[in-house]
Amino acid sequence: MDHSLSKNLMFSDLKFDDWRIRMKAHLCALHDEMWEVLDIGPFTSFQKVNPEHAIDNTRPQMISKAKSEWTTEERRKYNLDNIAKDILYKSIDDRYFNRIKKCKTAKEIWDTLELIGAGDEQEKDNKLTIANKKFDDFKLLPGESISKMYDRLLTLTGEISELGKDLTTKEINLKVLRGLPSAWKMKVVAVQASKDVKTYPTDKLISDLKAHEFEMIEEKEDVPEERTTTALTASTSKVNDFD
């Protein structure tokens, strides 16, 4: 089995949340019980019915199997920890390897990387404070499209969610509308009058704004043509006056 990694699976404490999502998906795709290895610990023993001390037919006594008795699937489960460790080792460069090289299991490695990436509770609180400030100040930037603005907003709300705070649809929709410049005032008023910002899907709101953005661009492109026509008319009138 090829366990080589793509670039976006390399550990980064600066983009830890993205790395965690991608790595979890990658590991779980290899085996449907891989997450148990990271969340609980490795499969180290498997049981069988003790034929000599069965309590009764419905509640048999269970004992651990000898390793020589393991089935092919049980051996595969036991090896999941080695597979996970191999992949996690390959995702870490020398800066972090010294901090995890004494870990005995994939769970220990994962938990250590969680601490490195997410930090302790105080650090999480600090990160959340900074992210909340970014959300408070969020607005459409000069020359920025609605699409680009929404990409930034998704990144920011995802960061806030990873830090333990879930924003409501109302909070996100109002932030989008209040982040628009004065040229959008009529559109903002129209949306607030016709839509329930508490329940209106943000994706649909963005689609509405994109449509309006397109109309605004078309109107701007029409203005120079109108001015040119007016100027030509005025110029022709002056020439006729001289005649």
UniProtKB/TrEMBL annotation:
Residues 229-243 have a biased composition (Polar residues). It comes from the Eukaryota. Residues 220-243 are annotated as: Disordered. PANTHER family: OS04G0629600 PROTEIN (PTHR35317). This is DUF4219 domain-containing protein. It comes from Cuscuta europaea.
